[in-house]
Each structure stands twice: as structure tokens, then as C-alpha cells.
Design goal:
The complex is a heterodimer.
Chain A (H helix, E strand, L loop, with lengths): L1 H4 L3 H9 L24 E3 L6 E13 L38 H13 L3 E2 L2 E2 L2 E4 L9 E4 L6 E12 L2 E19 L3 E5 L4 E5 L6 E11 L2 H18 L11 E10 L9 E6 L2 H20 L8 E5 L4 E4 L12 E2 L6 E2 L18 H6 L5 H12 L3 H9 L3 H11 L4 H18 L11 H12 L5 H11 L7 H8 L7 H14 L1 H8 L5 H12 L6 H13 L1
Parallel strand pairs in A: 13-14
Antiparallel strand pairs in A: 1-2, 2-11, 2-12, 3-7, 4-17, 5-6, 5-16, 7-8, 8-11, 9-10, 12-13, 14-15
Helix pairs in contact in A: 2-5, 4-5, 7-8, 9-10, 9-11, 11-12, 14-16, 14-17, 15-16, 16-17
Chain B lengths: L5 H10 L4 H14 L6 E4 L1 H16 L11 E5 L26 H8 L3 E6 L26 H6 L21 H8 L5 E6 L5 H7 L2 E4 L19 E6 L2 H11 L29 E5 L9 H16 L3 E5 L4 H19 L18 H12 L2 H14 L1 H27 L4 E5 L8 H4 L4 H8 L4 H6 L3 E8 L5 E7 L5 H15 L7 H19 L1
Parallel strand pairs in B: 2-3, 2-4, 7-8, 7-9
Antiparallel strand pairs in B: 1-3, 4-6, 5-6, 5-10, 9-11, 10-11
Classes of the chains: A alpha+beta, B alpha/beta.
Chain lengths: 546, 524
Amino acid sequence: MAVAARGCGGVWRRAWQRGAGGPSPAPRGQRAVACNARGGAVPAGKSGLAPWEPVVGLEIHAQISSNSKLFSGSQVQFAAPPNSLVSFFDASLPGTLPVLNRRCVEAAVMTGLALNCSINKKSLFDRKHYFYADLPAGYQITQQRVPIAVNGSLSYSLCIDNKMSQMVTKTVRIKQIQLEQDSGKSLHDDTRSQTLVDLNRAGVGLMEVVMEPDMCCGEEAAAAVRELQLILQTLGSSQAVMAEGQLRVDANVSVHHPGEPYGVRTEVKNINSIRFLAKAVDYEIQRQIEELESGGTILNETRAFDSKLGCTVPMRDKEGKQDYRFMPEPNLPPLILYDAKSLPANMNHQQVVNIDLIHERLPDLPSVKRAKLVERYGILPEHSFTLLNEDGLTEFFENVVKQTQMKPKKVIGWILNDLLSYLKQHSLTVKESPVSSFLLADLLNLLEKKEISSTAAKQVLAELWKGEGKTPLEIVKEKKLELIQDQKELEQICQAVIDGQENEVMAIKAGNLKVLNKLIGLVQRETRGRSNPVVVKQLLEKKLSQ
Amino acid sequence: MLRASLREVSAALKEGHVTPTELCQRCLSLIKSTKFLNAYITVAEETALKQAEESEKRYRRGQPLGVLDGIPIAVKDNFNTAGIETTCASNMLKGYISPYNATAVQKLLDQGAVLLGKTNLDEFAMGSGSTDGVFGPVRNPWSYSRQYKEKFVPKSHSQDEKSNWVITGGSSGGSAAAVSSFTCFAALGSDTGGSTRNPAAHCGVVGLKPTYGLISRHGLIPLVNSMDVPGILTRCVDDAAVVLGSLAGHDPKDSTTIQDDFKPFELPNVADVSKLSIGIPKEYHAPGLSSEILALWSKAADLFKNAGAKVIEVSLPHTCYSIVCYHVLCTAEVASNMARFDGLEYGHRSDMNKSTESMYAATRREGFNDVVRGRILSGNYFLLKQNYENYFIKAQKVRRLIANDFVKVFRSGVDILLTPTTLCDAVPYMEFIKEDNRTRSAQDDILTQAANMAGLPAINVPTALSERGLPIGLQFIGRSFQEKQLLTVAKWFEKQVKFPMIQLEEVKRHDHDAFQHQKSASFS
């Protein structure tokens, strides 16, 4: 099947993404891990030789969440009026000098520690030169030689075959994290053939996180970036909202045969969501394989992802290869960081960055939070992922648990199946939910005390979404959704149902007990969900055995 | 009055012998009558008079801000001055008015100094003659002194008196000429490879290059960030100490300034040099050193010896590599620093509008002179990936060796080094321009730039007149942040050599007239 699929892009892509899937087993017999890092491979090409192995590395620019810019006192703010947040330094007025923002350093150290990096106690700043309208100084201050953090790792999980129940955990090595300045923004007005420049973003602090090429498909890249995003947001070192450009991902993609040197890589830019990242990487892998299979070569080039067309296209190269003419930044002394051991006694604590102190204050990272959720509430690991993936959902869940007698294991179903799907349908965030954790807990308590059935509970919830300020109990009363407590009334209804369904009764009596459920359903319909299915079942069974 | 030192005139202001406004007016009118020197690019008459007026009010209230209150000063035109044009003597910044004051300028203003104007220089401070700016060369006031005129013998018919004027040296030539011609009492220069000390030597004034990091560079338009320091030009060492005291110290806007507090100091009138060890670096006996400077140098050494000081020959073995190394590091940083001048945010912008790139190219071609463009080109060459190791990294290593040479000498017990500042006295302009800027800079910076490479404090002290009646200065180099010791020695030396005052007709006439005017005014 894989062989047959080779001619066709889409199928081919699916084939390696999901690990062949068909009758031909994936290498190592591990279904669905054909694209795992280091070792997973794409089935053989036309030549019938070794399979292709995609190699994916990422360079991620995360805007540091800070009140002011990396080297100036200008405010940092998204979507402010153009050029309203520009200091003399940001506009590179002659004679101005950079002054390092301590908050940015701390954010980078925090991030480095969270990504298991070793923090360089001495790091350096360099100038990277190129001419561009939104780079006022003609160079960017970055950390080319000695970055602030190196040699880390990031563990992330992804599900196989899109099944939440099959999750694997992988690790990507972090090469380094460097501090650098953001550029401004250029707006090209083609009709009037002019370029407008907004320097609000110029000089904002960035952390560039360089991931080693340890990934091998779009899903892995996407999962790694999602985990990084969660970590940054947990730390508060970056808001990491991709849509606002606070997290920008460039992917380096190549393919090769296992055991052979890496292939020529391309750099894919212009990826502005995690979903597009997966698409862009997969497309590029696919493109390269096809190119090579048809006897072509891969150029070491920069390509842009076109989200509308779903493909990558070569970017207009800036007149051949750039030589950035790196040079030490002479206006910034080496950045010295301290730990408890090296901290000089007479040093003003306001002036130094103490790595150990930052380490102590690190919040629980997502992986730890998930483990705690699983342990504390007995929920499934995949549920913990969903809880953390939605901003504020964990807190919502925990609040409901606190206020209800219902077991967390049952609560999670209501949170994920009812609350979350409703929010998704209406594109709402957890914070915008019309039903508060208090109301939901109230409702679940009614259910738990058996005052209403779960069918009725869903009806109440549907009312609650309207946000009319009614309590669940009020809705129950208003709509008369309480369980029928009158045994006689219920018996009558059951009898009526039995009387009306001769065929079903016959089937049950013949031994097909499954049909009983249909009768229970009919009773529920008759009572508009106001009957307890357990009681109904007992009543029906009693009556049918008579 | 105009020929007084800063401290003397400050005392006169305090005692009411002269008011800040009178003083300012006299300086302004002397600037006018010495306009031919081309020392100033911009004269800020209006703001200066306003500042003088403010100062006068403070004196009247008996609350002057300090020694500098009411003192007319000038600032090299590569320091940013809010509201007053800052040009760097370049088409690129012609008409550029900065929105902020350099820290050094702000500090002077905060202490009541009166800013007369901005002084001429080589374009972006790249040069050693103050001849290569768009506003034309600066003329050395000594060209018009009685001392020089008396000694002048035309060598040929074509060489008449008019074309015989000599250069000031550079690149802070305007500041040196301003102080030397008595149009101000102190001036700011900048010193990257000798740009303060060299013109100070040629113009017969004191030129101090402080330790790197002692005075903020914020607002000084950079040449080489890792070597630039604001320089101080005054008529005597004491004045330099006063200005230094008002400028030195940490600046949160310049991360390379010292963290520790700086305590201003006064220099003792009687100094004991007998316990000092004066080093004479043999490598400074450089090729091309004029015999009279050599003789003067050794006479100076004798002065110290006779006063009981230990004078020893020392070696700074890497000196000969210094100028080449300086060239690489300087051009590399220049290439980088000049990248911001693209015509977009400020400064000159070419009319070329075919594309952003063509606009950049035309802007930079029109805005920079050949010297600047040449340095940008070679700097970029040294920074190319394929050349970086061979040039930039090597030059940095050599720089470390040069700095270590000084460390070793000072560690061996030497307190101060004594060297010439220049190879010879000032050259006539017509002769100077026969060589290109690069050759000239390489020759003229040879004795001064090593102190910049090592970040050490150094000072030019006017010592004697040459056979041609032009000033010759000697240089003292001190230990890092040991300005007090350096200036103490310089002051002692200054006292011994009794450098003659410049005899300028213009100044004499002017000062005299001014006095006459004042007298008649007070009698009426």
C-alpha cells in the first residue's frame, strides 16, 4: 500500500506521518512511530533503497514579557499607535547607548532553568549587521559568541494517530537561548511604492531558543512548540501569543537516508500558528522528498509558508548570501550572573541577578502540574494535557471539584465534554464562560444528590449558557425537571410504555436484554428526563418478569 | 581678563569684577573677530547670553552653582546639544538638531557653564589635522602669533605669509584653537587615538584624555566606542582638574562608566616628585621624531631627575604594532557605528527614490566624505567572516598585549610615563594636505593611540616653543583612574617649564578695547 501510494503526495504524506499504517508494517514494528526522533523513517523511495528520514530543527523567537525594552526605557505594548513607543536609542539617534534591562535577563535565566539549560555566568553581546529599514542602527544586538543559556532539553508529548489515549513523550535538545533585540516593522505600500516603518517593536527583548534537529515531523515540531509556549506562559517570561507575534517559529527542514549525512536544509519562515507549523513542516518534508525522488536537488534557501495555499515558497533572497559581519558590542560590558556561591557579600542585591534565587522561585512547570493533577484527582494523563492546554481550565476544574461532592473523575467529563466543547463551539475562552465554576458545581451537586437525572442536568446546563442569572435550582423548579419521586406515577408510566411496545417486550422475554435500554429510553422521553434510569430499569425488569 | 585661567576668572566672577554676561559678550565678540580661525561651526549666541543671564541672577542672589557658573565654554561638534545643531562636520548631519544633551554637556550646563558654541573638527572626528570637515580647516591661532611671525622666513617667493598658516592638529582642532585663542575658558574634545592631546600639543594648551570609563560617553557621537573618551582642553592643568571634577563619575546611561563614586580633587600647589618613578618608554623614540622634541623630552626627564625623581628607561615592546592594530579596530567599529546613517530616521537623505537600497547608497555617498567612506570600507572588509580571525581577532589580541605592556611597566614600580605628544610641531596647511588623511593619522597618532588602546589617562602639557615659534607639548601617561597623581605631576611640570603665553594681536586689541569700553562705561 505504501508503495502504491508513492506517486501521490497526499497519501504519501499520510503514509509516513502515521507510520505507514497499512499492511506493510512500519520499521521496528512500532505502529505510528515512524516519524519519531532519531530512528523513525519514511518508507523507501522509488529506488527501493533506504527510507527517507526527515530532520527538523527549530529556531524560536519569544518576545520577553517586560514593561520596557531590552536596552531602553521605552514601553512595550502590542498595537500601540505607530512610532509612539520609540526612545532616542530605539531610533538609533547618534550618541545613544544601550542599557541592559534587568527584567529581560531574569526572564531569560528563568526560561533557561525551566529548559534544563546551564546558565552562563558570563555571557557577551554582539552586533549583527545588515541594512534594513526597520533596523535603525544597521545592526542588531544579539548574543552570537556566548549566549546566556546553553545545553538544555525540552520534553513534550504527542498523541499517536490523533488518539488521546496513545501518548508518547519525546525530548528535544535545546542548543542555546540568546538575548537579542527585536526589529521594527515595515509596511510595504506597493501602490504608492513606499515603505512605512513602525519602530514600536524595535528593541523589544527577545529570547531566541534554538532547538537541535531532533524532531522529524510537523506534529512533533508543533507539540514541542506548544509545550514551550506553555512553559513560557507558566513562567511569565513571555506571553507567547503567536497571533501577536510574541512567539515566532522558523523551521529548519531536511531529509536524508538513515546513516547518511544530513541533507541540505531549507529554512521555513512566516509561520504564525502552531497548526500552520505542523502543516508547513510536513509540506516541506514532502516537497523535499519529491524533489529528490525525481532527481532534483534541494537548495539551501529560505522559504515562506503560505497559509492560504498550504505550501512553502522561496523567499526573495536579499541579494545573495548575507555576511553579518559580527562584532563584539563595545558599549555593553560582559553580562555577569551570580549564584549563591559566587555572590559577592558587598554587592547591592538590586544590581545583581542571582541564578539560585530565580531557581528557588520557579513555579511548577506544566509537566509537574499535569502529574499533580493525575495524582490528586485520579484523572487520566491525557485529561491533564487538555486541562493545561486551555488557559484557566485547570483552575476552573479545581474550583468545581472544591465546591461539589461529585468525584473529580466524573467532574472532568463535564468539564471536557460539556464546558470545553461549548466554549470551543462559541470561540470563547475559559474566562469568558457564561457558566461559572460555582454554577456548574451547583448543578453537579443536584445531580450528585440525585435530585435530577443527568439528562435533566444537560437541559439545565443548556439554560445556564444563556447567562440569565438563574441558579440551577431555579431552572429545575421552573422547568419541573426534578426526578419523579412518586413511585406510583413512575410505575404507571413504565406500564404504559410496556403496553405500547409489544415487539420489544417479546424480544426481551426471548432473551434479548439489550432491548431493555430502548424501553428505559422511552420512559425517559415520557418523563422528559425526570426519571432515575436505575430506578426505571428496576421497575421495568420487575414488571417484565411478572 | 579673557587670558585668565578658568579658576582666575571664576574668582573674578565671584568677587563681581566681571559679570557672566560681560564675560560671555566679550567671548562672543572675540569669536567674531577671530572667525578666520574657523574654530567654531556654530556660535550659539542667543542661548549663551540667556545662560549667562541666568548665571548672573544666581550670582546676584549669592548662590552660584560652583566654580563653573558663568564660565564660557565650547564643545566639540560631535557632542549632542539639545536645540543647537550637531554636525560632526559632515554633510550627513548638517542641520541636525539633537533632542538631547550629551551627559558631559548636561553636567557642564547643570553647573552653570555658558555654552558658546560647537567647535570644528575632522568629519566624524576622523583625522589628525582638523582639515577634513565640510566646514573647512581650522587655523592654528599660533599662525598669527607674534612668536611665529617673528621666526617666519619665507622659503620662496610663492610662500607668502598668507598661505603659511599651520594646522591645529586634530581632530579636536576647533576646541584647541578656541581655548588657545582665548575665546573660551575650557572646551570639550574627544579622544580616540589622540584627538584631544594632538591638537592641544599643536595649539599650546593642556589636553587631558581621562581613563576610559571615567566620563560618560552618552551623547558623544562615537568614533570607536571601546576607545573614545571625552577630552578636556584648558589653558592650565588646574583648570583641567576642575572640569574633570565636574564631569567624572558613573552615568546610568553609559554602562561602561565606573560604578564607584568619583571624588573631585584639587591639586597641591607644591608637589614632591622626589619619590616618583618616571618611566621613559624607549619605543616612543619613534622614527620621524624631530630632534628638537627629542631634546626637549630629555630635558624634561632631567628636570625630574634633578628634582630627585627616579627616571628610568622602560620598554613597551608591542608599541610598534599599535598603530596597525588601531587601524583595524578603529575602522571595524567605524563601519559598524556609521551603519545607522541611512537617511531614514535623521540626517541627510538623498533624493534618490528608486529603491530603499539605492536611497541608502546615494545618501551615504553624498553624506560622507572620502575619509569616512574609506574607513567604512576597510572596516567592513576586516569584519567579513573570512577575514575576521585574521584581522579583527588578531588586532584584539595585539591590543591586549599593548595594554599588558603598560600593566607590566606600572607593576614594576613606574608611576608615570613621560613621552612626546607629537613627532614634530604643527605643519603648514599647504604641506599637511600633500599627504592623505590615512597616512597623516597613522603618523600623528603614533605616540598617543596606545593610551587609548589601554584605556589609560594621558595629558598633554605645553612645554616650549619650537625653533619656528610653535608650541611643543609632552605627554604624561598615568595608571588607570589615577588622574590625581597624573595631574599633580603634570602641574608640577607645567610650573617648571613656564610655557609662554600666545601673543595674539587680535586678542590684545580686543581685550584692551573691551577694558577701555568697560572703563568708560563705569565712569559715565
